[in-house]
Structure prediction request, 436 residues.
Amino acid sequence: MEEGSLITYKNLSGPIAVQLELTPRCNNVCNYCYNSWRGNKDSEKELDLKEYMAIAKKLVKDEVFEVVLTGGEPLLRKDIVYPLADYFSKNGLKVGLNTNLTLLTQEDCDKIKDSNITRILGSLSSFDKEIYNKITQTKNYERALDGIELLVRNNIALGINMVVKQENKHQVYDTGKFVFGLGVNVFCGTPATPSEFLNSKEELTPKEIINTLDDLLRLKKEYGMFVDILEPLPRCIFKDAEKYEPFLKRDCGAGKITAVISSSGDVKPCTHVPKKYGNLLEKDLSEIWENMGEWRDGSFMPRECGNCNENSYCSMGCRESSKLKTNKYNNLDPWSDPDNIGERKVQSESIVVLPDETYRIYSNLMFRDELGGKLIYSPKTMTLGLINNDFFNFLTKLHKEKNFKVRDVLQEYGENSINLIKYLKSKTFIKKIREG
Ligand SMILES: C[S@@+](CC[C@H](N)C(=O)[O-])C[C@H]1O[C@@H](n2cnc3c(N)ncnc32)[C@H](O)[C@@H]1O
Ligand code: SF4
Ligand code: SF4
Prediction:
């Protein structure tokens, strides 16, 4: 069972998570924003609710697990945000909302709850009013804080994303601490991804990215905050990858597991990628997904990564950044430095499973049939696995037993089954109940 237990993303029938850009318009003008169409209001049309419902039906039919409503600023389309969220959640999809927080009212909070939007990611570029207003090119600071306060008061799960660039790089720790003081425990300090609209002098250097991550780790240590970054980093940005392992779990899902639908219905692999692969009002998702095959067939893998001994669990950074900087998708991410890899230990060695430990499979895992096996998704940790049918049967049996002791599993299924348990643990599909 061990050999070939995992199947590849290459043949995945469709995305598992989709972002819907409900509008190209925004009431902020963040100077880091990748949103290429924001200055040109005529460049993208906006769909009405009827057109969006036609798209939503296709996403439900193709068993997408999760939808994020984004933009531009999605709360400029309150007419469609809530009916869409309601439709998706009633059909079993998880629904998230990305917002700049400045347009929220009590009525929105009620509708967020009623339509079952379970994750809100709000943007806050600084705790400092002057810097916030400078970066967003507005006077919206107080409105953003009001938005945070409203969500917290209404007990709505909120995470804050601070996009980090030269202007605010010294404020990561203080912004996290400030946000914690407002009652928010989830904080992301995402290094600004290079974009056509971001002056390259404003980008962080690898050293400054590491400083940002150190600030996040300090917030975790001092306040117990959940900290993260929202874009994939190449592992070789670090000499000491082990210390930063929590920030390396994020794979680049573009066109592999995720897709984005623009405000006119065009499908792209990622919000940062301008290339369109078909319109969802005209074609089925599966056909457009097929057109996007170049994102998952390995053709964008940099030559240097082919020989790297960490490539099986490295995101290889951002393909769109490589394209932007070198005009090629299959060149190294600009933050990569393969010399850092050296002789360091590989991550898989650090996953330890002991015979006397007892584990349980998370009950909220989601499954979808795929060619040769099953796709598993954990909405709690947002991790994904692809396993063959033998592995799935093994998992189902363990699940029926509720709690399982590793020693008993090894006795019943053989010593090699330890690797399957390690895999489940690495993906956080199982949790440890007892040491022994
Ligand atoms: C384009 S915004 C749209 C939703 C909403 N207007 C907001 O600001 O949250 C989606 C997310 O992308 C992030 N973002 C924008 N530009 C970015 C960049 N250059 N690099 C990384 N993240 C970026 C924003 O902070 C936000 O969390
Ligand atoms: S990051 Fe969000 S709030 Fe800022 S300009 Fe872009 S879409 Fe608007
Ligand atoms: S060389 Fe490539 S695969 Fe290896 S760590 Fe760097 S980006 Fe990842």
